[in-house]
Amino acid sequence: MGAGMGMASDQQWLQLALTGLMVALLPLSYAWVKGRRDRYRQLVWLTLFLTFDLILFGGFTRLTDSGLGCPDWPGCYGTANPFLAHANIHAAEALMPSGPVTWAKAWIEMIHRYLAMMVGVLIIALMGLAWFKRRELRQSPWPATALFILVCVQGAFGAWTVTLKLQPVIVTLHLLLGLTLLGSLAWLAARSQPAASHDAAANRLSPWIALGIVLLAVQIALGGWVSTNYAVLACTDFPLCNGQLIPTMDFRHGFTLWRALGKTASGALLSHDALVAIHWTHRVFAVVVIAYLSWLGLRARRSLTLTRPALILLALIALQFASGLSNILLQWPLPIAVAHNGGAAALLVTLVFMLTRSGPDTNQKV
Which residues are catalytic? Predict the structure, then answer.
């Protein structure tokens, strides 16, 4: 019986690997045909675009409560797709019609996994091309290799997200690692562009842009903590929180990292005051980040090198504020919530591009 289970597991892995390869064939073929003169650069940009899409769909998966649509990993009830797990899904849905496992949620979760496998295949191809063409490309293959290591770690956190039943700290780290992967790809894509002209004003802004990335990363972590704890509607008005400037809050339980979803570390139900503390902290720090990035965008407009990304940054800040406010006032509508996640990712990409173009070594190959 144990041998049979092992064979089934091997078969499942093989089916999933073939699925990921098949899904990746289309973008790989596009990069191969479109980038005849520079396939490496084309593949970097395509992987960046699809990783951004994966993060959006990951947000959609989380916001539709589909993270446990298939409660095992890497497949769905020991199979490679929900069609083969139909009987198990039907039984779970009959037992709990609005529970974590439904036909729709199973497909959402598995599509998310298929997209993640596709990105993994693209990064493997990118690493292979970087090593095979390293003399022709005249750049180090190690950044692409680091991406491969990062995507492996990200895959491990994806597995733990399921096996640890959406534990908030694991889900938040999964989000942060996904955005780290996106930022790294943005850096690699920016460095693959033609060298920018030297701009002393842009160079002086480089440390301030780096600080902006740090502040944004903290805010994204706080936002991820809000989302994974389902604390978006803990404050239902704005600019006050439940009619108060400083409401009653429970920071100790709200920011205890190692605990189950919806519970304290001791296993008791998480109080509403703890959810308010999570939401309020994200909201207050948003003021700091918006003020800083707005100042940075206005400063960067004076640089010829950074004028265009600075305008994009300012536009994204306005859209991100509007979507965040709409989530509160409109009771967390799904399209706006997904757009808010996408806005954070777009801000990160924009800042990474600005940092790359502002550095004193923009003419150097990686």
Answer: 109
Query: Taking 60 as the threshold, does the pLDDT of residue 72 lie above it?
Result: yes
Does 197 score more than 60 pLDDT? Answer: yes
* Rounded-to-10 torsion of CA 134, 136, 138, 143: -30
Cα 362 to Cα 205: distance, rounded to the nearest angstrom: 14
Question: Residue 241, SS3?
Answer: strand
Strands (E), 33-129: none
* Spatial CB neighbours of 234, under 8 Å, sequence gap ≥ 6: 241, 272, 275, 276, 278, 279, 280
Average pLDDT over residues 162-176: 95
Cα 293–chain centre separation: 20
**What's the token pair of residue 209?**
């842009």
Task: Convert the pLDDT of each residue in 132-150 to its tens digit.
Answer: 988 887 788 999 999 999 9
Do residues 303 and 200 make contact, with C-beta atoms less than 8 angstroms apart?
no
- Classified as helix, coil or strand, 244 is strand
Cα-Cα-Cα-Cα dihedral sign, residues 197, 199, 203, 206: negative
Q: Which residues pair with 244 in a beta bridge?
A: 241
Q: Which two tokens stand for residue 320?
A: 């991100």
pLDDT in tens, 100-117: 999 999 999 999 999 999
On the question of a cis peptide bond just before residue 239, with omega within 30 degrees of 0, the verdict is yes
Q: Give mean pLDDT, residues 272-294.
A: 97
Angle between helices 103-132 and 86-95 (to 10 degrees): 130
CA separation for the pair 171, 27 (Å, rounded): 28
Distance of CA 23 to the CA centre of its chain: 20
Burial class (CB in 10 A: 0-12, 13-18, 19+), 101: buried
pTM recorded for the entire structure: 0.92
Greatest Cα-to-Cα distance within the chain, rounded to the nearest angstrom: 70
Q: How far, in Å, CA of 226 to CA of 237, rounded? A: 16
